[in-house]
Design a protein that fits this description.
Number of strands: 20
Radius of gyration: 21 Å
CATH class of the largest domain: Alpha Beta
Low-confidence stretches: 97-103
CATH architecture of the largest domain: 3-Layer(bba) Sandwich
Helix content: 25-40%
Mean pLDDT: 95
CATH superfamily of the largest domain: FAD/NAD(P)-binding domain
Number of helices: 11
Strand content: 15-25%
Structural class: alpha+beta
Largest sheet: 7 strands, mixed
Number of domains: 2
Distance between the termini: 38 Å
CATH topology of the largest domain: FAD/NAD(P)-binding domain
Shape: globular
Length: 440
Amino acid sequence: MSSTPVLGFYEEPARTLPVIAECDVLVVGGGPGGIGAAVSAARNGANTILVERFGSFGGTWTAGILSAIMPYPYVKGIFAEVVRAWQERGGWNEGHWGAHDGWGGGGTYDSEVAKVALDRLVVDSGVTPLFFAQAAAVIREGNRVRGVIIESKEGRQVILAKMVIDSSGDGDVSVMAGVPADKGRESDGGVQPMTMIFKMTGVDDERAVASKQADPDFAKAWQAAKARGEITVPREDVLAGRNPKPGEWNFNTTRIVGKDATKLRDVTDAMVEARRQVAEVAAFMRKNIPGFENAVVSETAPHIGVRESRRIRGDYTVSTKDIVEVTPFEDCIACGNWFIDIHSPTGEGTERVYPPEGKWYGVPYRTIRAQGVDNLLIASRCVDSSHEAHAAIRITPQVMAIGEGAGAAAALCVKLGLKSTRDLDAKLLRETLRKQGAFV
């Protein structure tokens, strides 16, 4: 995994930065976790600002055009509101997995519909949004983060906050604040591969569905093409789904291995390689799969999809055992039952380990409390966990549930005038989450 070489150093002149806002809760990163955190904090009475580096909320849902939601039987609360909003706008297609316990069986969504629905959710909740800005530095005073320096077209500016929530995905705010982090598997530091999601339009849906039913995940056709030397993508099958728009399908099939999402050059190389793979997969579909003969690539994600990068250390590390044996936690703030789902860090193959059917594992509050900092919480896929446990927790509905818990916790800490996130009564937090419809 490469990094940009350092050729020398330049000493930047000191300058005075303008403070553009002060708030109760500052959330950095407007992906699923950040949305859940900001909306939850605002609804609990906190003056909340949400900073997002792109021009839409949703992160991997929108900037990453993920288009598919895995089954979420034990996630309710704000995420359930999101799905309802997509349904009401005609942007939701119930998944082929089927409903589970009446709480949802996953599905596909229209990413443009998602943008509008998420705008409304955030703004109508009273959150102050800031697009096209990202964290450049952290102002840390002792064991507290006093504020965050953001950078945008207006230059470097300061937002001061009583509580800060890191929803940056890669844990950027936490690392800048000096919180220790882990990355990859223990043996070699290898992380799960990145993926560029893309869409194809002009598909004959009826014939394409029949093709997928006859050859699940188009695996037989894919392996045959590999044997002929037509495919170089290091993946064993084709992960594709039918979108709500007629004739539109999404693909989560490209696989970029050996790259680090926190390295500038690695992410650049990943984008270039991913687009090459997109063209290869699309050509395969047109040539080999009935229903795709006249289909074209209509959209590639403007940002590479990242499964795994940093994992920020909190007060508790969720272990592989916690996932598989569904350890009960008295301070549980979010639940899920997606399995350990590790896409090989080095090439073809996907490792899967399942928790017991009909049961759920939990993410405890202590996991999202940033180690050594009194007012910083984590609300994204980078919560403290083992490499294997992370592969289960990272699914977007569960990340939004974690964010909802973080937002409620931050608001309660402000409301009660607590000096540290560790002083918050977990029972009160869980009662608050239940009142707002969360499953804990």
